[in-house]
Amino acid sequence: MKKNIQYLLLGVLALMSSCQDPEYVLPTAERQGITSLTALFTSGPYVDKEAVVYTIADASVDKYVIPIPWFYPEDSENETAEYMKTMRVQAKLAPNCTINPVLTILDLTKENYFTYTDAQGYKKQICITGERVKSNKCQLLSFSIPAEDISGIIDEEHKTVSLISAEDLSSCLAEYSLSSHATMSPDPKTEALDFNSPVELTVIAHDGVTKQTYTVQKAVPDKIPYGYRKGSETELFKLDMGVIGLPWTSANSPSLAVNGNNLVVCLGDGSTAPTYYNASTGSKIGNMTLGSVGVASLGCVTSDSKGNILLATKAANGKSFSIYKTSSVTTVPTLLISYTNNTSLDMGTKVSVQGDINTNAAIIATCDGTASSGSNTFVRWIITDGVLGSPEVVSVNGVGYWGSPVSNTKVVTKGTTAQSDYFLSYYDPNVLYWVNGTSNNASKSLSNSDNGNSWAMNNNCLDARTFNNAQYLVLVSTAHFPQWGGTPYLYMYDVTSDGSFTGTVSTSDALTFNPSLSSFGSADGVAATGDVLFAPTTDGYKLRLYYVDNNCKIIGGYEFDCIDK
User: Domain DUF5018, which positions (predicted)?
Assistant: First the structure.
């Protein structure tokens, strides 16, 4: 009985202690109150675009100075001073917090006062104003000595630039790309320098204060034995297509090519000339030289492993299909292929190339499906020792039939022979097929993504490339419904062998890189078209990857290296 009473007392004590009021800690978001302020343009060419999202780290402040970039876009010469007096300001608030009067259009050259009330009813006066700020970015993005055909290998971690050369570099001018509005001292664009010995170059940010010094020297960096170095994945840029001057229409079927440090974008809309951008920053440079190639007939562009650009025309059945080539964005293209399309299908919207068109390469032009019937056909040309072979019409077995134009596919091959395996994927099965090049039968596949929103994706943008003894495949899934928050997806696989090529598109063991991508589109989708392209540097140390999604109005790029550190 005594033991029972003791147990009863212990139970009562435990119950009482469990009923004590715990110390209440407000959630972080509620303690923060105002977490960010966004300033948007209300006039001019960038109306309704975000000038800046100002994240607020200190919850105790009562004066918020929104840092408006000096230029917008950052890489342009468009000063923002004229827009400062009419900025629309939006606040991100924690639950049950308010700002009165309601934020609308503010003159950010003045101090604007409001009453902030937190979730507990505490009130305080706050001030919102703004100031134009100059960029503090000071990165060296690319470096080359054109006269010696040398591209420097930049090691950002150690701030070095390696020049692989045995030539005399005692008096050389250089080309380079920097962070927007940064400068370099001394300036090797105008002052010939002796690169036979190490040279220190200082990059100074637009703010005139922030700087970084790089050492440029002759050297041959060691490589890792296989593939790209994990941890080297670097985002080059992600940009709103509208901000960099690319129109957004339902006729767009964008394609990409890379030539040196130039990224070419062809919209394939029949009216917009291919434009080229700085491949390191995304800054617009100009329109590509076309010569006799007509914009109205141009279907797409692509580039080979050496940076030669191919331009393909659209051709209905029975019409002439042409592919032009050029080694530079400023050199007039010359005719490479002229083919009478006898496939009974249209072609010219999707073309891929593997290898070097001046030595050994494989060029594939996908044939589009029709409204009444699909397509499982492409046309292939093999270049051997610089000699173009005859066209071959190929039908693929075991992959179903793709459509056109949004639901077609870009067929990409692993190698440069007619027997090389190849890959394809299309909407709406969204299955990624590995096809045996000898039999043209699908041999393996990755099933549709299991991330829950694959029904809203279009898996038909592909490219493949060899880099540092590894073979990589990339698939970009464009979004059908950006108005519902859809974004593109990017999947990069190691396909050197097919042993890991199992599972789903989003979970396969072959997957090596799968970043989260953004969207600048919130309106109803008009065409879920896009492209993706690998671009290895000629020195073999870096691999770049570029993508574009028309519906999401985004174009971006990543860089990988194989430097042994």
Answer: 6-357
User: Does the N-terminal peptide bond of residue 405 adopt cis geometry, omega within 30 degrees of 0?
Assistant: yes
Q: How far apart are CA 381 and CA 417, in angstroms?
A: 9
Which numeric CATH code is attached to 34-133? 2.60.40.4120
Rounded-to-integer distance, Cα 211 and Cα 205, Å: 6
Q: Find out whether 163 and 169 touch, Cβ atoms under 8 Å.
A: yes
Q: What's the pLDDT tens digit per position in 313-338?
A: 999 999 999 999 999 999 999 999 99
Question: How does pLDDT run across 16-33, given as a tens digit for each residue?
Answer: 444 444 333 333 344 568
Q: Taking the C-alpha atoms of 403, 252, 464 and 356 in order, what is their torsion angle to the nearest 10 degrees?
A: 110
Mean residue pLDDT across the chain: 93
User: What gap in Å lies between CA 487 and CA 218, rounded to an integer?
Assistant: 43
pTM (predicted TM-score):
0.86
> Which of the following CATH numbers is that of domain 234-561: 2.120.10.30, 3.40.50.300, 3.40.50.620, 2.30.40.10?
2.120.10.30
Strands 422-424 and 412-413 turn out to be antiparallel
Fold of the domain built from segment(s) 140-218:
Immunoglobulin-like (2.60.40)
Cβ atoms within 10 Å of 461's Cβ, excluding its own? 29
Number of other residues whose CB lies within 10 A of the CB of residue 455: 12
In 74-192, DSSP assigns E strands to 87-93, 98-100, 105-106, 112-117, 123-133, 140-145, 150-151, 153-155, 160-163, 175-178, 183-185
Residues ≥6 apart with Cβ < 8 Å to 201: 140, 161, 184, 185, 186, 188, 213, 214, 215, 216
- Partners of 511 in the β-ladder: 493
How far, in Å, CA of 53 to CA of 38, rounded?
Answer: 4
Q: Would you give the DSSP letter of residue 102?
A: P
Q: What angle do CA 525, 424, 310 make, to 5 degrees?
A: 80
Structure tokens at 189: 């664009």
Amino acid (1-letter code) at residue 487:
T
The secondary structure of residue 229, as a DSSP letter, is P
